[in-house]
Amino acid sequence: MTAALLGFAAIFALAILRVPLAFAMGLVGFGGIGLTLGWQPAMASATQVVYDTGFAYTLSVIPLFILMGNFVARAGLAHELFAAAYAFIGHWRGGWRTPPSRPARASARSADRRSRPPRP
Fold it and tell me: What is the pTM (predicted TM-score) of this model?
């Protein structure tokens, strides 16, 4: 319990010193493992966590989606897609906002009816 409180106080102190929270938590966690288990296990644990996190499939996909979005934007495809969508629904009253907001308005009306008490 004391170690946890000291770790929390250390993270809080580093946050007050405007250290980014990810680095503060990493430093405190590394120091806690180093003080309780020893510095060799702390180094091994840190190495393994960095390796496992760096090669996780879910984290490797995010930069690829960002890259794909940049390719689409630089090629002008995004502008053409918006122009095509505007050609399909732009002539309706309300244009862009009408189709997505229809289900929202319908659910808001039905929720409003359910939330009111019955009239006498």
Answer: 0.47
